[in-house]
Amino acid sequence: MSRILEGPEGIALGVRRLSEALPVAFPTETVYGLGADALNPDAVAAVFALKRRPASNPLIVHVSGIAMARGVVKMWNDQADAIARAHWPGPVTIVLKKHDSIPGVVCAGGETVAVRCPAHPVALALIEAFGGPIVGPSANPSGRISPTCPEHVADGFSEHDLIVIDGGACHAGIESTVIDLTGDTACILRRGVLGIETLSNTLGGTKVIDRTRDLSQGCDSEPARSPGLIGAHYQPRTPCRLASTDEALGCENARIALIAWSTKEHPASGQIFPLSDSAHEYAAGLYRVMHMADACGADEIWIELPPIGAATEPNERAVFEAVLERLARATQSG
Ligand code: AMP
Ligand code: MG
């Protein structure tokens, strides 16, 4: 049975478990992570096993700040420094050449490592108390919906003796933006709540390539290994598809669970899961309503396409684009 523990008690037990090479789930501002000692290959292997994550999908290393990040990478560069100073603690993950002390299993056998300082007091306290970097993939069985509250984690690993440190609901709600700084030109590998424009501005207006649109697009460095960016992911167990606003408004089938921002009407009152039409609130609530819709016993889930055309601020648009990427993979068959 998984156990949810309050902050201070959870951190104390969490540190003990991390020292024993056991996984511990912890909150971040994006989603809950499945933590393990990043310098211990056995501890990291236990995380892959628990999640049933393919060994080819590298993990993000979580640090308490720039000083710890410097110890994880071969060389900290000016671009990394600019982004970390502007946005850490926060939802942006930086990919650089890995330090020799980082076991290959963390990086799926590659030469680069992804590193991030999370903006959550419990995550920072855990890393500080442990005294070293911890890996933290999303704390869900591989391919499933990411967890944004401790109950999601406990439900996902109910058969396991996993400690989940309670940090409340995650306020960003979707995974971090991943930026590759190993080459001369920065590349975005995964979208998140921090948009490409914001990151380009942080780098003094320099060009940032969006590799998420076309992973085959050139990057000055060797293409980073990021197989986690393609294929089905974030998936409910219930069949799930995208719906237009017209379809959402016209939904009359009580066997369909509807996740929608434009309507709160549905023939079966228990089957409607409203989301905000504002980008940040939509992202913060998305995984929570996906978990709820998946648990309500419906035959199918429809997710109304977010109002991306109505976004006026560039960063609002960036958040909706990041959301759309998750929705595409959540509704992908196969
Ligand atoms: P998750 O832990 O589920 O949020 O996924 C982490 C994602 O970060 C992976 O799927 C990769 O896309 C990306 N990532 C992690 N490490 C690396 C790396 N060394 N190079 C490129 N991308 C990485
Ligand atoms: Mg994940």
Describe this structure in words.
This protein is an alpha/beta fold and 334 residues long. The chain folds into two domains: 3-216, Alpha-Beta Complex (DHBP synthase), CATH 3.90.870; 240-330, Rossmann fold (3-Layer(aba) Sandwich), CATH 3.40.50. The chain is 31% helix and 18% strand. The chain has an eleven-stranded mixed beta sheet, with helices on both faces. A four-stranded parallel beta sheet has the order 12-15-13-14. Strand 2 (24-26) and strand 3 form a beta hairpin. The radius of gyration is 19 Å and the shape is globular. The structure holds adenosine monophosphate and magnesium ion (MG).
Global shape? globular
Sheet bearing the most strands, described? 11 strands, mixed
Q: What is the H/E string?
A: EHEEHEHHEEHEHEEEHEEHEEHEH
Supply the CATH superfamily name of the largest domain.
Answer: DHBP synthase
Number of distinct helices: 10
In the CATH hierarchy, the third-tier topology of the largest domain is known as: DHBP synthase
Secondary structure tally: strands? 15
Show unreliable segments. Answer: 216-225
Quick recap of the structure?
The protein is an alpha/beta fold and 334 residues long. It has helices at residues 7-19, 41-51, 66-70, 78-87, 121-130, 150-156, 196-202, 245-249, 279-295, 314-330, and strands at residues 3-5, 24-26, 33-37, 60-62, 92-97, 112-116, 134-135, 163-165, 177-180, 186-190, 208-210, 240-243, 256-260, 272-274, 300-304.
